[in-house]
Amino acid sequence: MARKETAADAANPGRLKQIALTYKMTRKADSKIGLVLAAVGIVTLGVFLAIGFLIGHPVYLGILGLLLAFLAMAIVFGRRAERAAFGQMEGQPGAAAAVLDNMKRGWTTTPAVAMNRSQDVVHRAVGKPGIVLIAEGNPNRVKGLLAAEKKKMARIVADVPVHDILVGKGEGQVELKKLRTTMLKLPRVLTGPQVTATNDRLRALGDLMSNMPLPKGPMPKGMRMPRGGPKAR
């Protein structure tokens, strides 16, 4: 009787295919990746074999060295693959949003909360450090978007700290590869319930703005807002 295919069996080909695809993509940006991985594996295994012969247990140390060699190769491969991915994304529209999408639990991210015709964009992330506005695009143009979004946040959640980060390689900017680390280093000042309450208030604002009937053309002079609409603060 044929053995039924398990979920693990079905997942293995997919994982191997994903690793192979990642390796090919990394090799395009890092042509020495194969040599580096081979050197790491050989050196790690060689060191443990040498120790094994010295103490009289080459088999045990050889097996341990083989396992640690694969582990070391996996760590190096992961880091170089991540570096290559950031290098390919650098300067591309929406690159910061891709990084934010992979943030750990505890963060709620909303891409493109503000944008202009030149594709300068501001993303928003909410976590225990408060609200973080991440801007990418031309530094001169995107500052206006950031300032407008910070004013909006000050009106809606005045009691929550608002941080702003400009992604780029210029002075005062944060490189794409350092964005996640920079956000994780921000001081945590909110509790879990406060983060949830902040997200609820921002989500309610988004629903209100999306459902509000707005005129397609310029608003006529003297026109009054319908009753039940948002009051001016």
TrEMBL record:
Task: List every stretch annotated Disordered.
Answer: 209-233
| One family name in Pfam for this protein | DUF4191
The identity of this protein, by name, is DUF4191 domain-containing protein
Low complexity: bias regions: 219-233
Does Manganese count among this protein's keywords? no
Instruction: Extract the signal peptide range.
Output: none
Q: Transmembrane: present as a keyword of the record?
A: yes
Cite the InterPro entries for this sequence: DUF4191
UniProt KW keywords: Membrane, Transmembrane, Transmembrane helix
| Transmembrane segment boundaries | 33-53, 59-78
